[in-house]
Design a protein that fits this description.
single chain; about 180 residues; mainly alpha; 5 helices; about 0% strand; elongated
Length: about 180
Amino acid sequence: MKKYLLLPVVGILFMGCKTKNTVGANGVTYKNALEYNEYIISRQIQLQKDITEYTADAQISIDEADKGLDKMISDASVSLKDIEGMPPYNGDSTFRNAAIALFSFYKTRFGNDFKDMHQLKRKLENGTATDDDQQKLDKFSDNISAKEGPLDAKFKETQTKFAKDNNLTIIENNEQK
């Protein structure tokens, strides 16, 4: 009888020792707001590195750029899934949702628009591009920037609010520019 009475007491003690760590569906534990922020920002920095490498590869050839593009698509997909698995932090999902919107944009643009651009560049290289193809290429960067700008602004705005709400200081990071 004593054995059965002690089990609920032991269970209550274990429940009382629970930490306030936030654990996401992705299985990651976020001990504090800084870890939560860094989880997102580290993925953004990796994507920036991928883009820098891709740009260098594109200067060599479209075939080299294809390899870089494949890495960007993969990294954007994995990062998006990781961030989607994050829980709200202290009930607030605004920062996470802005990151999801931005990474969804990257995944879609890399997987669709950039691949289309590669096809257009190949047509230019082999002399089969039309004037319409050239116009599409000429407008490519502007179109991407116009779509990315508001998402990036929202991301920065929500990160700033997240930092303020959680007493964090944002330090400008050259890798995020």
